[in-house]
């Protein structure tokens, strides 16, 4: 790749490098990750590229300049900043999502403890609190068991979330993947997924859960996607 | 509204803007909220107004000048600072409480995890620890299932708390609302509600709870409302 | 009291004011207290006095000069710094312990969540981990149900801990009191009490606990009281 | 020992003193220890020496110059910095590991709450999440009950971990020991051990765990030991 092309890419990704790097701080701050686990990526607007965390780097050492720019096959773009390092070992899964879900602008992966506990039982999280209806529109589903090494994790994420209200999937015996309209939206989904995973776990430990009628779940989800916040935001539905 | 009227309101709310903004920090610091969830409001002494958090703003971005001044129907006062934003999506519930409970000076709403877990089972928190008798005078009650969009949440809060010793209500499948003589007192109630929700949950997981005799609960509550702290404070009873 | 006497007392308590004030930070830092709950006191060496936290003051506002100097009946010494405020509402219990247990140099009270959960079931914490044998020499016992207002809490603490290896007692349906050779030692006992209350609770939730043979508990306790740390320290046994 | 020898040792351990001291901060930061509990050590490359924490010192007071240099019998080297203090009371166990496992470069000991809860039931942690297969290659095993005072803890650690994929052992009714190629690797194992102990505990509380097929565990472990991170790292297999 020519120096000219690299410079054009760096210009296009400069803001996103900082956004993605900064958003990583939300993962340890919200108790979603330990050590070097977890990763956030964001699609580069107008390019077939995304920005993702390097593999095996401690959180305090993350910085805009060591985020890695990848094409939609998950290959680092030679010559760009950080391309001397390996991207996150989950890059193939992120890449598969960006290739096949054009409306997705951000992807997050964590092994957050309560959500991963549901995943270890291959059990969806039932929608028994209104905040979960707002954010996810129903239960958080379980995706297939798949291991790293090919496209099987990416395929499982897409097969589960495509057409689903939820922006979060519990990959069986593994952890959480979330999608969003941008990286921040996907991080929000990861934070709220762990929050509801914890609350519903605690609730279930104490006795019988009371379900919310489906029409109320629908009403809450529709309202939240349209009117919450300072301008329309939320999921991608 | 004239510039003169706006200036008079801003003069009346200046201290309260800072109090309410600062008190919001207690919510994440005490583990009561995630992301932009939760809200605190305070009544403006001597005016039919209250100050509340804007909708969908991250906690570190809250500041006195973006708190929103509302009338008792929950409408932002045109021309006041922050009135270009939407107030919290829970503003209607806060407004209903201020309209119908004139002794209430502060309202807080959270989805704090342990309290919301009890709410997901529509189960009141039994009063089995003396600190809970001090603070709440008995069990923390469950309010009706109600969804956002009209006065039904506000009506449920008032119907449950009016005449009740508790300053906290677990709204079914939703979360916690607390009231207080001022915003700080309502925040204290929200913090203590989560504390007892957690302790009693843990206790119940381990076996049989030992009840406290009603006359002891009464004695503890009456003492705490009258003699604790540097001067009389506590609930509004 | 003469200005001269007050000055002599202030000279005697200057270091202790700072120690007791600083030690209070350990309570929120270790998750033992919420809001203004919890209190630490320390005996003034060579005087029938102790220093304790004021009532109802937020943790960040505690400082050496607002700690309160009390006699062994729990009365603030007129003219000393901070004596315009009320001492902690638990002062009578601290005073009773200092009056009747001359070897005690520090007392701590908290409603730390896991320990208070055991207290809500009036259930002692069994000694199933070696760190608990080291620190407490066996189970952490339950004291009687007693409410604030007279000496009954203090009597219950002393009746339970006098001659017991444990420096911590779970007061029934209330919370934890710990004693120590000085204020720091009592704070350590409060921190370790919550730690073992949590670990043993989690262990018990998962299945059958494996007991430690009594002779091993004895050996661990005896060794720890004599050889751990840079010089002999630990409990008062 | 001559001043010359001491100077040579100090030159050899200078970097390691800082590494081991700094790594201790990971223990409280990750919720693995309370008060003065827990310890990290690292082998001095090319010498029959290791560096370890002093006994009974608070975490904020740890510094490179108070770390203690010991020979492989666990005796502090006279004349070296910090040798006027006692090394960690767990030094004998660390020394035994270094003597008998020459490929081990770091050892960590904690009483982290979830892992110690499994230890209190003498129950291994089953491998039901892929991140655990990556890091530990299967279940985290239980070692024998052994108490401090001779080599029995060290012998139990080595007997359990020698030839095992796991770098962590749950010593019965006691806590966790981890080993690594260096001190940082052992700290990582301690952090991840607590993480999986917590997640699997929570999962088990909620119902039936779904096992991962053995061939998938094998594939995950082999890949992670060889390709994760910026260069080959991970366990010592």
UniProtKB/TrEMBL annotation, chains A, B, C, D:
GO biological process, one term: pentose catabolic process
Annotated Gene Ontology cellular component terms: cytosol
Entry protein name: L-ribulose-5-phosphate 4-epimerase
Enzyme Commission designation: 5.1.3.4
GO MF, one annotated term: L-ribulose-phosphate 4-epimerase activity
Listed InterPro entries: Aldolase_class_II_sugar_metab, Aldolase_II/adducin_N, Aldolase_II/adducin_N_sf
Enzyme class, broadest EC rank: isomerase
Gene3D superfamilies cross-referenced by the UniProt entry: Class II aldolase/adducin N-terminal domain (3.40.225.10)
SMART domains: Aldolase_II
Keyword Transit peptide: no
Keywords: Metal-binding, Zinc
Cofactor annotation: Zn(2+)
Domain Class II aldolase/adducin N-terminal: from-to ranges: 18-201
Pfam families referenced in this protein's UniProt entry, alphabetically: Aldolase_II
Family in the record: Belongs to the aldolase class II family. AraD/FucA subfamily.
Catalytic activity: L-ribulose 5-phosphate = D-xylulose 5-phosphate
